[in-house]
Amino acid sequence: MAIHSKLIVRLSAALTCTSALLAFSFPAYAQSTYPNKPIRFVVPFPAGGATDNVARPLQNELLTTNKWNVIIDNKPGAGGNIGGEIVAKSAPDGYTWLMASVGTHGINQPLYTQGGGKMPFDPIKDFTPITLVAELPNVLVLNPEFAAKNNINSVNDLIAYAKKHPGKVNMASSGNGTSIHMAGELFKSMTKTYMVHLPYKGSPPAVTDLMAGNVDIMFDNLPSSINYIRAGRLKALAVTSAKRSPAFPDLPTIAEAANLPGYEATSWFGIVGPANMPADILNKDSTELMAAINSPSVREKYLAMGAQPVGNTPAQFANFIKGEIAKWTRVVKDSGAKVD
Length: 340
Prior knowledge:
Structural class: alpha/beta
Radius of gyration: 25 Å
Strand content: 15-25%
Number of helices: 13
Shape: globular
Oligomer: single chain
Helix content: 40-55%
């Protein structure tokens, strides 16, 4: 009986020790298998727009190379704020990403909070930066019939027409606070013209109305207009970047075309998660996403649409976002832009 009792005690102690070891090691094992379920990739603009076009090559590359099941979820509205709020309020477990943009993480905070307005999230405190994906210029495009009817063949022609007909030119955008909107507001401010801003829920419906002649001009993201420009369904006058785009080397910048030194309004797209993501998951996301961005397949697709692939560290992306908020705070103040 004594030997039997001692054996039971020893077995009990061994089981307790084993249970403790399993409890200690399980979280590490669970994290080491990440991702073991689909990742929700929130794109805060409609399918077919520039933000969506930048997200999809990454989705395909991660599936092909890593077998990661990344599901794109388009949640447009409020200049990207609806999708941004969804991710800001999600669990920081690595299974929810946001395709952030210059709108959601640069322009919207100063634009929506002026005059006592509110943002549904803080672009710094409520997110974990993962990597900057790509940068690209916007392009000033016109409805071809509108341009032909009014003899507008250059940026200076447009400025002259807008000054002669204040309030008669309708300027579409993909939504309040987007880079498309702010490129137009900066143009209006620097040229001292007045054009009516018509915000849409993303580029695709705005471009559709532009081609139909329901609106006159737009400062669209290059990827969502590039094929229509090549097909002659949109008339391009200039790009909004400081340098010409390799996709259209003969197209001037607005700064050079209209003698507007300092004019620059480019777009960028990057991936963020909710605040307080675990360091090991963040590092894994950052490493795999940078590899995908720099893969030949993704680079080829980005360059074809006029985008420049980037890929940087979470710390570098965090500093970049802070700089963008400071930059666009000045632009919003100087231009007098408002949420329509």
